[in-house]
Amino acid sequence: MTPRENLLSLYRRDGFDYAPVHFNLCPELEGTFRRAYPGRGEYAEVFEFPMRVLTDPAFPWIAEIEGFVPQRTWDYDLYYDPPIAEGARMDIWGIAHEPGSAAAHHMTQMRHPLERLDSIEQLQAYPWPDFERADWSYLDSEIAAIHDKGLAAQLWMECTIWETAWYMRRMDILMTEMALGDDKAVFLLDKITDLACFRAGKYAATGADIIALGDDVGMQNRIMMSKDMYTTWLRPRLKRVIDAARAVKPDVIIQYHSCGHVTELIDEFITAGIDVLNPVQSECMDVLEIFAAYKDVLSFNGSLGTQTTMPFGTPQEVKDTVRRNLDAVGEKGGLLCCPTHMLEPEVPWKNVEAYVDACRTYK
To answer: How far is it, in rounded angstroms, from Cα 154 to Cα 276?
Structure first.
């Protein structure tokens, strides 16, 4: 099988020829990779990732968006007081990301453009991204080029509803409005959902194999909101986005991301229509129990801890964890075993190599 065929068969639990490899490196570890593999190209090629990920045009910085035409010029003073810091970057939603100290590495301070607004009319007047004016045609050639290499094409549109909404409004404000049934929360979540449905339909039309949705709704040892609040406010809207994609491409694989503990919400994710759960964070949930309970109806991406195993385990512990997790889902597959999040500077490079070796020698 090609890498694409192998991955899609694994995700559909139809068996797999080999365990694929996938991970994301922080800028410092990218430098470590280049020193270890000088002149070898990108690490996705060197380590033979089975997919290539294209980023949703709703996420990048305004200056970097291909085909996107801003609706109008930003009036930063209207939405930010105090003004945003020098060197801050602005994403397409108008969320400012301010740089921190050297100790922050690539992390930034988020500013919330809607936190000062207090009426539906102000929310309606906000300069929302106009995706209908974007040129989406570039995706067709990029997807075709990925497929020509025998690779799967995954389109990334995480921060799908909830995270985009609270990034803009501020979490405490939005949660209070949700608890009170405030119309401003209804408008905000519906507006973001409508835009996500439009993008999901466009993505499905490109022939993408996987659409990666997601919103962090878990904390380290519990869910972020009550199950009732999730099923009232977020699950129906997530289902709308998934239905919009499947109306265009019924066999598209839907991956859903949430960091943290989400055990109580897995059934809700399945009801909404997801196929793959990411990242199955081992520090927050019992991954073996989840595999045992759901491996016949759900597939998984992740499960290799980036708070524990990858930074602080030995290479042998990394290998043992990979093999244990792959064994737990069985011969049909269902798990792309990989680190649960970006690998940060404290991860020893030997553990990255141990992970790759464990996958390549599995079976």
So the answer is: 12
